[in-house]
Amino acid sequence: MTEPPILGTRGSPLAMAQATLVAAALEAAHGWNQGTVRIIPFTTSGDRIQDRPLAEVGGKALWTKELDRALLDGSTDFSVHSLKDVESVRPEAIGIAAVLERADPRDRIIGAESIDSLKGGAVVGTSSPRRKAQLLALRPDLKIVSLRGNIDTRLGKLATGQMDAIMLAGAGLSRLGRDGVGAPVPIEQMLPAPGQAVIALECRVEDEATAAALGRIDHAETHAAARAERSFTAALGGTCQSPVAALATIADGRVRLRAELLAEDGSMRIQDETEFGLDDSEAAAALARAMLGRAPDAIRKLFEPA
Questions:
Q1: Is residue 141 among the annotated active site residues?
Q2: Most-buried pick from 17, 73, 76, 256 (CB within 10 A)?
């Protein structure tokens, strides 16, 4: 490509930090001067709607539709997303051209040393149906309340005593320079969301020049893991209010995919895992179908068309 690409992103502090990280990586990979990649921030519907869970008003598409529109009309050349916030079924004209190396995928609890140490009946804030279900599966006594807004807003609600603890993704805190905030929750206790801690770069499928430029910073191992997790969720169907966890790891040229489906209240859960080769494009979807096939009705209904 003859000109550096124009980057579209949400305007939140975390999204801007991630966009800056991507821009710096591209500039280093291509030998461009600092500031060469132009960053255009957008306010998305998900940013504007703060009083309701996203699942009630349109789901993950509220994070992406404004960026998609700018990308498709040529206002931007590529978009930067937190992959866990990108719906598994995307417009055919848009594709993931690259991902950065995955950060720590664990959740963090802030306000307590661990989930086990929470007092009986503690009020815990989270915007995630997955985290809510997992917390209730571990501690049915907890009271889970909806928590929206950027990281500072969420931390502020904790600081003012509106809740006893909150749950956030560790990667987001780290990217904002807050590595010491909160306590990591072990993967064995809370499996993360599909795509958690992965920064994704999307461009128009037909724009081969931009795709090639972005590909210079693609982390192949993370990309393979992300493909497996997204293949799993796509085969499930469902919506962003369906509690799903999945994490793929790569070792010795093979993919290990761990997954979990839960009832909304955490009263039932089904867990499984599989291992397959990097060139196997069907194994993750097959695991999803197998898990749904033996899931109790309270879980299966969450993935059936309305």
A1: no
A2: 76
